[in-house]
């Protein structure tokens, strides 16, 4: 069910720049978010995980976040067992356990030298 395909660097830069031109002056503008490989791989190694969904989110102070959720073969979200389930850090979570991810490193603030 999950989809994805390669895109050229030229098209990626054009689309990212289109977004920056349209939204770059917004107070809460967020261009991208960097997540550590081991955290994303932990999610992708969840039982039955076949894909990854990324949600745009806004916290109570108006700060933009991306929330990453693993998905099954039918595109359904793989959710933790309860609404408040986050008792452990990612590294403390057993392999195969469902997790949700946020708090990557935001750009602007921490943008790469070769930013799209």
Automatic annotation (TrEMBL):
It comes from Chryseotalea sanaruensis. It comes from the Bacteria. This is Uncharacterized protein.
């Amino acid at each position: 069910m999950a989809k994805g395909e390669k895109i050229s660097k030229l098209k990626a830069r054009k689309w990212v720049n289109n977004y920056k031109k349209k939204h770059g002056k917004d107070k809460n503008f967020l261009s991208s978010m960097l997540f550590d490989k081991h955290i994303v791989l932990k999610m992708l190694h969840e039982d039955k995980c076949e894909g990854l969904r990324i949600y745009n989110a806004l916290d109570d102070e108006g700060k933009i976040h991306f929330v990453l959720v693993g998905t099954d073969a039918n595109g359904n979200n793989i959710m933790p067992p309860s609404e408040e389930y986050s008792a452990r850090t990612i590294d403390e979570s057993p392999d195969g356990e469902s997790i949700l991810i946020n708090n990557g490193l935001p750009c602007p603030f921490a943008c790469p030298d070769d930013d799209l």
